[in-house]
Amino acid sequence: MDAIFIQILNGLDKGAAYALIALGLTLVFGTLGIVNFAHGALFMLGAFCAVTFQKLVTISAKVRDEGVTAFVAYKEQPYLESWFGDTGRIIIDYSVPLSIMLAIPFMLLVGYVMERGLIKHFYKRPHAEQILVTFGLAIVIQEIIKAYFGANPIPQPAPDILAGSANVGSWVGLGDNLVYPWWRLIYLCFSGLIIFAVFAFLQFTTYGMVVRAGMRDRETVGLLGINIERRFTVVFAIAAVVAGVAGVMYTPILPPDYHLGMEFLVLSFVVVVVGGMGSLGGAVMAGFLLGIVQSFASMNEVKEIFPGIDQIILYLVAVVILLVLPRGLLGRAGVMDD
Amino acid sequence: MSDIKKPGMSRRGLLKAGAVGGLVAATPSIFIKDAWAQEFRNDPKNTGELKLGFNVPQSGPYADEGADELRAYMLAVKHLNGEGDGGMLNTFKPSMLSGNGVLGKKVTYATGDTQTKSDAARASAKRMIEKDGVLMVTGGSSSGVAVAVQSLCQEQGIIFMAGLTHSNDTTGKDKRRYGFRHFFNAYMSGAALAPVLNKEYGSDRRAYHLTADYTWGWTQEESIKNSTEALGWQTVNAVKTPVGAGDFSQYITPVLNSGADVLILNHYGKDMINSLSQAVQFGLRDKQVNGKNFEIVVPLFSRLMAQGAGDAIKGILGTTNWNWSLQDEGSKAFVQSFGAEYGAPPSMAAHTCYVQTLLYANACEMAGTFYPPEVIKQLEGFNFDGMGNGPTLYRAEDHQCFKDVLVVRGNENPSSQFDLLKVVDVTPRAQVEYDWTIFGGSLGPYEVKM
Amino acid sequence: MTNTKKLLLNDTFVVIIFAAAILAMPIWLDPIGGNYPDLLQKFAIYGIFAIGFNILFGLTGYLSFGHAAFLGVGSYAAVWSFKLLTMNVIPAVIFGVLFAGILAAVIGFLSLRRTGIYFSILTLAFAQMSYNLAYSVLTPITNGETGLQLARSDPRILDRLFSQEQAAGLPSTDLFGETMSGYPGFYFCAVLLIVCFYISMRIFRSPFGLMLKGIKSNQNRMRYTGLNTRPYMLTAFIISGMYAGLAGSLLAVTDPLAGAERMQWTASGEVVLMTILGGAGTLVGPMLGAGLIKYFENIFSAFDDNVLTQAFSFLPDSVLEFVVPVVGLFVGSGWHLTLGLLFMVIVIFLPGGLVEGFRRIYDYFKSGGGNAKTQSVEARNQAGE
């Protein structure tokens, strides 16, 4: 019972991460008809917003370690700490959540520039060429990050009070041994919030309504005299921000490195397609489904019966779903199926 | 594409090479010990230059480690050619290296990118052998690559001096006559770690292994299991995790209720960083199980990689091949010249690569020829000292180096940004030696048909 | 002028030119540092892979993201043939193609039930499953991360039948006595490449090829005419898979090791990039793309600071100090960056890939009155870089 409960939590947590990445991707897929292979790179850029922010707040006085003579070894004393004492310490401690303030404007800008500068020229080009150009862009972004930050992962600790685990077991009456890290719980809530916000935006605002109409039938919306191009830019920028903040919040779980985006790229495509093209709900559903399935497949009891099942379960489930349901979970006819 | 000229195509380079070549050709041949007139691949003959191939990961997850290896190689080349302060050339005993190249020839090099993939590494090594004409290939940051390149080198008749590779297989079931490893292996990690684990955590422990699902992970799991079970520990479970899993939560949560009180992470690189920091996040280290503090052990520790795990490494025990804080003459000399050159201490990968280059160069000097079978015979059973690990033996039967092994602990209170690992204990060589027949495999022939 | 044009259109003539260009690669690749056996072999092998991929993608528009699975299976089958039967390469190649064909039939049968991106993801999923299994639980068959290798103790039943003596080292792959490493290996691959090119050309020109093109332009219309398109699609998929299997087995022939990462999605993605980069749907385009990417991977990654300093040694030292690090960002360990930029530049300015670029150059010179024939030959040559 305990084990199942905690694997559900694991699955939800993984699912939250998958769903959040897939959300932006499917938005761009569905509305703009763009196969964006640089979406993973946007996630990675978000994560590096957190790194940059941390570097900024920990700009330090360097206290040299005199014991070492061959090279300069030093201990860092962040200026924020020495100037503002406890306030400075708190800012440094909370650098990950605070860096969202940097990530949102930065990712908006990135999204805007990318759409205006590159993507908009590719609306009418074949998907294959969209893949090539966005993949090229992803490599370029990745290599720039590598040249500046190196290839090693950079640790991004969660704030101290969230570093430990919550005693989840006692909340639901399942004993003391059931703990779960605070930060992962927060990530779960956070992604719920973002998903809700994106849905609310599309569902309850007129702006969102037009975008949804554009997803269904771009030409007619254009004929109605609505500047759908502008809205596309906004949608792309929103997708970039969603990917970016997802990246920021994921850093305490997975120390970011330049290759982070590529690792999520394939997975996020699988999630989007299993969910069904052009369906936001489908992508979110698929994200959680795959997350939970993967967690359960990794249980020792399951692995004893099917060795190696945890290695392929995502793809196995994807294959089964796509063979049974022609357009994934909630896909609509006519979107990207030719 | 063609703006960048091929090396050696530039006119000045050609002139220089010509001049040096002329000089060497003019040296009376009596000084060049050329007793073995055999033909062999990439024989430098009278060119005055000797080319080495540095095959390191320059892209992919180990790119930083590869960059550090490359720095070490360039330093070694400098020292061999008599530039810089000489580094370990001054402490290496017995050595015939004098800083005027190798056998009177200037050392040059070609580099390549292994991408930490067997295929790419072999393609890159082949390029160096076929196009650049290197006499020796060295480097790498993974056992899969080491084994793949080593077997290629055997077929090609080129000596391979392995870089960072920790699997028992490299000098065990996949050993080759032309392959040599200075780095330690999983067996030695287990043997070195066991007494310290016994002392620190007692002999009544229940261990849970998380193991990267590939050959290196399996050999390490086996070795650590054997040596801890010999202490009296029980192994509760050993779970394989996919390489590059990223999120390990679904593997970590079962540990909580398994009744285990030690978690052993047979992961390296990014997997290690992720699994360790996540395990700490799950509060494993704050737990009490069976009335004891829960402990985490990372059998193979690397400072470069430990950086990525941040505070999570504090207090964690593991082993390492070498650490820059060592105070013997060789280590000090090496750290001094590496630090002066690059402004940072060398990693253990850099150390092993530097030493390997010197060992190869010295073996050529001892053999008096570059003819590989003779060089191999010099390396086999070679006893040396002054290279940072105390008296060391290159065992003839499996081409594995035997030396003291460092047991380290993540530093609780580092005095600088490089001061991440603290040496807890130095396990003497005698304790980590083993019978070479236990891993099987065979070295193969000295002579390789061309 | 019209005469030349007729000649160019003549299939036999195209094949002869192609064959001459391929077989002469050691000569014209020499000045740009591409003349060594391993790279030449890779050019030919990945050329086959890309040509095969193009039969599916270029003709039918179905974008498979799992072709690396067939490459990997071809390699494994070939190495097992070396281990169990004989070091002769003929059975290895046959088994490689056969097993890849069988796997392609299975994957194709299932995946072709869907179209568009759903098809792509199905093929991707199958390939990733193959890769993950090969890396871990299938290690007894694949030798996991290290890759499947030959061993002295392998049975090699057929070889033992004919000779009892055992060489001291590992045997090498051979074609009736001729060792298949080095230049002979390249010529073996090159001949197969030319054959593959010819077959692919025949397919493009055949009624079958036209049918596939019809499916690409409008599958529904084809269906309305009462035609069942599935068998055609499946045939194209299997042929394409067999090409990949051939390429995989040749990788093992020239270098008897089969690594799991050959099946990873990055490898599948690579052939997609090669094809689009060169020009999907054209005959030579995919080959050019393959050549370009392999050239970058092998040559550009080797330019370290040392090489750069030599290359720019004509500059004064002060300029040199500035130039070398800047150029160094794009080569050596930064070769990926150049590749990424190249992808973007080509697709932005040359929709239709490299072939489109050469067509433009060709048109430019034609209108300028240049000699069209020599131009086109030269274009082919440059393309291999």
From TrEMBL, chain A:
Recorded superkingdom: Bacteria
Stated name of the protein: Branched-chain amino acid ABC transporter permease
UniProt xrefs under PANTHER family: ABC TRANSPORTER ATP-BINDING PROTEIN (PTHR11795:SF442), BRANCHED-CHAIN AMINO ACID TRANSPORT SYSTEM PERMEASE PROTEIN LIVH (PTHR11795)
Compartments it resides in: Cell membrane
Pfam families, per database record: BPD_transp_2
GO terms, biological process: amino acid transport
TM ranges: 15-35, 42-61, 90-110, 131-149, 185-211, 232-253, 265-291, 312-330
Keywords recorded for this protein, A-Z: Amino-acid transport, Cell membrane, Membrane, Transmembrane, Transmembrane helix, Transport
Record family assignment: Belongs to the binding-protein-dependent transport system permease family. LivHM subfamily.
Membrane topology per record: Multi-pass membrane protein
Molecular function (Gene Ontology), one example: transmembrane transporter activity
Gene Ontology annotations for the cellular component aspect, listed alphabetically: plasma membrane
TrEMBL record, chain B:
Keywords of this entry: Amino-acid transport, Signal, Transport
Top-level taxon: Bacteria
InterPro entries: BCAA_transport, Leu-bd, Peripla_BP_I, TAT_signal
One GO-annotated biological process of the protein: amino acid transport
Pfam families per UniProt: Peripla_BP_6
Residue ranges occupied by any Leucine-binding protein domain in the UniProt entry: 50-411
SUPFAM superfamilies: Periplasmic binding protein-like I
Keyword Transcription regulation carried by entry: no
Membrane-spanning ranges: none
UniProt keyword Cell inner membrane present: no
Family that this chain belongs to: Belongs to the leucine-binding protein family.
PANTHER family: LEUCINE-SPECIFIC-BINDING PROTEIN (PTHR30483), PERIPLASMIC BINDING PROTEIN OF ABC TRANSPORTER FOR NATURAL AMINO ACIDS (PTHR30483:SF6)
Name of the protein described by the UniProt record: ABC transporter substrate-binding protein
Organism: Sneathiella litorea
From TrEMBL, chain C:
Membrane topology qualifier: Multi-pass membrane protein
Protein name per its UniProtKB record: Branched-chain amino acid ABC transporter permease
Signal peptide: none
GO terms for MF: branched-chain amino acid transmembrane transporter activity
Principal subcellular localization: membrane
InterPro entries, A to Z: ABC_transp_permease, LivM-like
GO cellular component terms, semicolon-separated: plasma membrane
Spans through the membrane: 12-31, 43-65, 85-110, 117-138, 185-204, 231-251, 271-293, 337-358
Organism: Sneathiella litorea
Top-level taxonomic group: Bacteria
